[in-house]
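User: I'm curious whether this sequence folds into something compact or stays loose and floppy. Could you predict its structure so I can see for myself?
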Amino acid sequence: MVGNKEILKKRPAVFKLLTSLLFAIFCLLHGQLSGQTSNSDFERIKLNYNGIEFSGIALSPDQKNIAISTKDLAPVLILDWKTQKVIHEFNAGNWHSGSKISYSENGKYLLLQELEYRDFSLNTPRKIAFEIIEAETGKLIRKFENVQDVLISADEKYMVSLEEESVNFTRLADGTKEKVLNVPGASNAIALSPDGKLLAVSQKVSPEILKSTFSGDKKSAKVAAKTRQMVSFYDVEKGTIIKTVTELYEIIYKLKFSRDGELLVVSQTPEVSTQVANKKISYFNLIDAATAEPLRRGFTSMSVNQPAIHFSNNRQFFAINSKGQKFQEIHLYDSETATLQKRFEMGKRIFEKVEGEKLFSDSRPSFTFLPGDESMLIAIGNQLIIWNFNIEE
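Assistant: Here's the prediction. I'll summarize afterward.
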């Protein structure tokens, strides 16, 4: 296996070659797997909100409602899944580029994350906005401006924010800041384990790691400092670092623990100056949370913007958005075998032919598994599409 030092030593030339090879392999696989494309069984949901573009969707933990965020100062909508009717509208997440949206673990709160027009940046901490609102009433609990990341603890007691090099634990009930963890070189992402004991943080590569990894090789160390990041685990109660993962990653945009807390998913994209034009590749890698050791299993996405990964309600499947040779796609995987099962192409001409409506262009689809885990709801542009993936076919 080629180490971090050897790859970085000749970067960006080696990286661009590897990226081109990966892209060629992806295109080859795309052709080989064309028989697995499933576009025949889909339907649309019409909400009678003319001109609205959707930016984020999420299924409530009780699987009764769908929360939908929108672009251009439009409202957050709550859809009753059984009737497919809007039952609430909230004035929240009023960002022109839209927002990601997610429910807290028990469904009491909604977390909205501002989407930037351009996801990928240089290796500098991003500064975006977040809002936390009550899912039933739309009441604003807290708005964050110019922070790197925000999450809600699984027990719904704390809102946890990454601001500069500080991770702040603030009580949702009364807004009292209870704990602050200092994380030198913190970058874009944090994740809190389901039991609230373990905190994962993305960081710039520390001078100590650079020195030990690239001993005597100043050129490679300089490249790593500019284009790579690392992940560290912290003990929340003690406020101390437990271990830094022995792997250097690309620019990390999202960290997420599995529901059982055993795995940490790392979403990363190469630093923008090293990417091959029009051939962006993002990666999802796994870390064993108990040992803080990187696992060799990983997945790629060719998504135009920052991709997402979602697991089915029964954890049997997971899905990643990507891009094929022509269209945006959703890729459905079997969780146990990690094999690709189905692909759904989201070409606007496909949907326009069905009902003759104009589909807005959108390179950032949002998606969620629906109750029963036999279908998925996809939001793209001004369309809400149910994909029945019929895994047995």
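Summary: DSSP finds five helices and 28 strands in the chain. The CA atoms of residues 365 and 380 lie 5 Å apart.
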